[in-house]
Amino acid sequence: MTVEAAGLILPSDVLIIIMENLGIEDLINLSYTCKFVKLLVHDFGWSLYLKHNVRSSFTLQLARRSWSSFDQIRYDVTSDRWWTQAKFNARPLSHPWRSKLQPIIVLSASVLLVAAGHTIFAYHISDSASLDDGAPGVLYEGSYSFTDQREITSITFIPDGHLERTVAVGFADGHIHRVFLPHFQQEQFNNKPLTLNINRDSPLGLRIVDIVESLKCSDDMLLSLSAFGTASLSNLSSDSPLVSTVNLDCRSWSSFICTSSSTPFTAFGTTSANPLVVHAVTPSSLSPAPFAILHPTRERSTAVYDITDAPPSAPWGSSKQVIVSGWYDGVVRVHDMRSGWRDSGVTGSPAPLRPMLTFRDPWSDEPIYSVSCGGGSSSFVAAGTARHSVVAFWDVRRPTEGWSVHAPGNDSSPVYSLILESSRVFGVTQSRPFVLDFGPGVTKETYPFLPASTRSQHDTLKLKQNGVGYCVTQYNHSRT
């Protein structure tokens, strides 16, 4: 039973219900009214606000369990403000690799993995007992190298009972393997990062005749896509995992799967007359024909290099029916499959659906190689371009006010892979992984320390005066 304070016009139970609909400023003002209401806000108001304003962040997940509700909101407010100001700390996560690679990054709540060549580099995500202790760290743990030195072309986490150490790995020779990444021994971890040699000894029963271009997992469903258009859907919880296979018959680049939508679906990015198509997923099969064709609004054919889900806090609402894609013509397109805005189609095929929103860097026509959504207020879209290690950002609430930044090191590489969290952006170029951190509490120890580069590394990094972030080049998209 809730105890009431003398003089309160409304019962505390009613005040708690009201708090569910209040923003941060309203909760702060309410807490100033009296000590009892301030206690109600502390005990219920901040946690209710977090419940209705979820921020997706793997690397903060463990720390948030220890932080108070108020500290979590304090972190989010600071991060949101820095996003609007384009203020961040840029940090490379390693010195440049010796050769140019085409890497991929994947992230869980406990580890960041960078797959490059025949090696998987692991970064451990540390905990933080309180916000005053600083932001959770992302520290280099070690690397895993495949003994047969086959090139990794795709990677994704798959269910393993919340251990977060099991991945599906696709290779250039068409094989897909389940790989468990053992923890490094504690004494070895504290002394010096190590390289462990691992074998490809757990095939998933799938064999593609060409490069495994993309791997995506949703719940227990694994979607694979080959470079020449063989799409396979597998149920990892089944003794016979392969569900069905569809041939797209064109050069294929990217895939996306969503099993939590009202109509589960997959999307495929290709080079063809219809570069972005959506196929339905049933418990027993992957539909061979698309139920939606997502049009670029341009007559000529082009290509789609990456696909992701939309920002959770977009004006159109948090819907699984909205997807974001990066295109060869340098445009990021947002398609809402609930929309009726369509072009005239070919008889027997779905009418092409036009994009509801597009983003472009006016200073660059480079293809978009990678896209990811999240960021400040969960409303940002990030895109990695094909040259000069440029990452572009747009707030979907103000889509004409974008800006771009060159990754630390400013090399000529594409940004091959991006992961956008509430306060952090992880990316990777042909030379190394990097992070842009928009959150408070970043110190010299938050990310790996990089000793002075040797002459053979040719590293052009320049540390800022604060000793935390590195100098990078930024520019606004405005032409005025």
Structural overview:
The protein is mainly beta and 480 residues long. Helix content is 13%, strand content 37%. It has 6 helices and 31 strands. It has helices at residues 12-19, 24-31, 35-52, 61-66, 69-84, 186-191, and strands spanning 89-92, 104-107, 111-116, 119-125, 138-146, 152-157, 166-171, 175-180, 194-198, 203-207, 212-218, 221-226, 230-235, 242-247, 251-258, 265-272, 276-282, 285-286, 292-293, 302-309, 322-327, 331-336, 357-360, 368-374, 380-385, 390-395, 398-406, 417-420, 424-428, 433-437, 474-476. Strands 15, 16, 17, 18, 19, 20, 21, 22 and 23 form a 9-stranded antiparallel beta sheet that branches. A 5-stranded mixed beta sheet has the order 2-3-4-5-9, with no helix packed on it. Strand 17 and strand 18 form a beta hairpin. Helix 1 runs parallel beside helix 3, helix 2 packs antiparallel against helix 3 and helix 3 packs across helix 5. The mean pLDDT is 89.
Features:
5-stranded mixed sheet; about 475 residues; 31 strands; about 15% helix; single chain; mainly beta
Task: Explain briefly what this protein structure is.
With 480 residues, the protein is mainly beta.
Question: Topology of this structure?
Answer:
Blueprint: H1 12-19, H2 24-31, H3 35-52, H4 61-66, H5 69-84, E1 89-92, E2 104-107, E3 111-116, E4 119-125, E5 138-146, E6 152-157, E7 166-171, E8 175-180, H6 186-191, E9 194-198, E10 203-207, E11 212-218, E12 221-226, E13 230-235, E14 242-247, E15 251-258, E16 265-272, E17 276-282, E18 285-286, E19 292-293, E20 302-309, E21 322-327, E22 331-336, E23 357-360, E24 368-374, E25 380-385, E26 390-395, E27 398-406, E28 417-420, E29 424-428, E30 433-437, E31 474-476
Parallel strand pairs: 5-9
Antiparallel strand pairs: 1-30, 2-3, 3-4, 4-5, 6-7, 7-8, 8-10, 11-12, 12-13, 13-14, 15-16, 16-17, 16-20, 17-18, 17-19, 20-21, 21-22, 22-23, 24-25, 25-26, 26-27, 27-31, 28-29, 29-30
